[in-house]
Amino acid sequence: MAWVVLFISAALEAVWATALGASDGLSEIVPTIVFGVALTSSMATLAYAATQIPISTAYAVWAGTGAALTVSYGMLTGQEVVTVLRVLFLIGIVGSVIGLKLLKSAPPGSLQGRAGLGARSAEQR
């Protein structure tokens, strides 16, 4: 359930980012209201998801997914230029998000996941 909420939160991030762009410096009332509601909802759902997903993973997935959705929307509406490199980089972001989702999280306080950074267990010292 937390992952579903996290992806909803990322979609809301794309909504508020797009609304912010459309608000003309928060001077257009409807996009400004959409921005405020989507921003608040996005933060609340991110906070909820982070109660069950490590914040480092949740934030990376949230930011990456939201950015990919925002750029994709811009390309679909003609506000962003579609290039092969842009599409490849978006695929890279989405692939990274999928990779983070598929990784198993190590329990808090464990050395799993840190061993590749040169950490040694007490038995190895």
Automatic annotation (TrEMBL):
Membrane topology: Multi-pass membrane protein
Membrane-crossing residue ranges in chain numbering: 33-51, 58-76, 82-103
Keyword check for Cell membrane: yes
Cellular localization per UniProt: Cell membrane
GO MF, one annotated term: transmembrane transporter activity
Keywords: Cell membrane, Membrane, Transmembrane, Transmembrane helix, Transport
Cross-referenced InterPro entries: EmrE-like, Small_drug/metabolite_transptr, Small_multidrug_res
GO cellular component: plasma membrane
Signal sequence, renumbered to the chain: none
Pfam family name, one: Multi_Drug_Res
PANTHER family with a match to the protein in the record: GUANIDINIUM EXPORTER, SMR FAMILY PROTON-DEPENDENT DRUG EFFLUX TRANSPORTER SUGE
The family this protein is said to belong to: Belongs to the drug/metabolite transporter (DMT) superfamily. Small multidrug resistance (SMR) (TC 2.A.7.1) family.
Listed name of the protein: Ligand-binding protein SH3
Native source species: Marisediminicola antarctica
Taxonomic path: Bacteria, Bacillati, Actinomycetota, Actinomycetes, Micrococcales
